[in-house]
Amino acid sequence: MTPSTWTLREADPAVASALAEDGWDLTIAARDQAKLDDAVAALSTGKNTVHAVSANLAEDHAEAVVGQHLDVHGGLDLLVNNAGVGLIGPLEAKKAKALDLEIALNFRSAYRMMQAAIPALREAAGRHGASYIVNVSSMAARETPPNASAYVACKAALVALGSSTHKEFSREGIHVTALLPGLVDTPGTSWADAAARDQMLLASDVAEAVRFVLRTSPRCFVPEIMLTSSGPGLHALIDWDAFG
């Protein structure tokens, strides 16, 4: 099966799991080597190859991650950018170091991974008729809750990045999709109360959105997918003012 590289957010390996189930060869990248080792074991089906790269994507390791992927798998058909961090709090209290981290991990890492991956994705599109980039943004980019300004701005920037690069690369067969899920019931949202978690999206919903993109014809481009819960979304589930 065609290879992909996946920048793994520790809380949510659901998309990588779905790709492994579908027979994809994978490269996963994250900081925590122990969690990477566990993920390799979980994602290895016996019919695919899973490679792990220990890298802090807030730093400039994009070319090394993509390079290792190509060394192991020989090609690249799909890039999923899902690294992220949410440091919630009022704008006035945000320290410069925290701001720099959010920008680096939530936006710059995706931008740099795309830069590093485009030559291989262009080659794959030439061979197979299509290759894919999925940038995991957030419904926060649309609903813009208070006390999350840096996170919201970075997630909105990912959507704009996808819109611009769709126009830049789609004629070459490179599909760029921004995925905008609402709050997802994962260990990363364990801070929320049980009532809120019972209304959140499932991680499998996000994985199925990626599967949908991959199952469309090469003629069908999907610039954005929004996934939300019932009611007014993020504002119904969380009291964002409490973070002020």
Features of the shown structure:
244 residues, alpha/beta, Rossmann fold, seven-stranded parallel sheet, two-stranded parallel sheet, 9 helices, 9 strands, 45% helix
Written overview of the protein:
The chain is an alpha/beta fold. The chain starts with a strand and ends in a 7-residue tail after the last helix. Helices cover 45% and strands 17% of the residues. The chain has helices at 14-21, 33-43, 62-73, 96-128, 140-143, 149-169, 194-197, 203-215, 234-237, and strands spanning 3-7, 25-30, 50-54, 78-81, 131-136, 174-181, 184-185, 201-202, 224-227. The protein has nine helices and nine strands. The chain is globular.
Number of domains: 1
- N-to-C order of helices and strands: EHEHEHEHEHHEEHEHEH
CATH homologous superfamily annotation? NAD(P)-binding Rossmann-like Domain
Largest sheet: 7 strands, parallel
Number of strands: 9
By CATH, the topology is: Rossmann fold
Specify the CATH class: Alpha Beta
Q: Which outline best applies?
A: globular
Unreliable segments of 5+ consecutive residues: 5-11
> How many H/I helical runs?
9
Mean pLDDT: 90
Give, in spatial order, the strands making up the sheet with the most strands. Answer: 3-2-1-4-5-6-9
Distance between the termini: 48 Å
Radius of gyration: 17 Å
Structural class: alpha/beta
Strand content: 15-25%
CATH architecture: 3-Layer(aba) Sandwich
Helix content: 40-55%
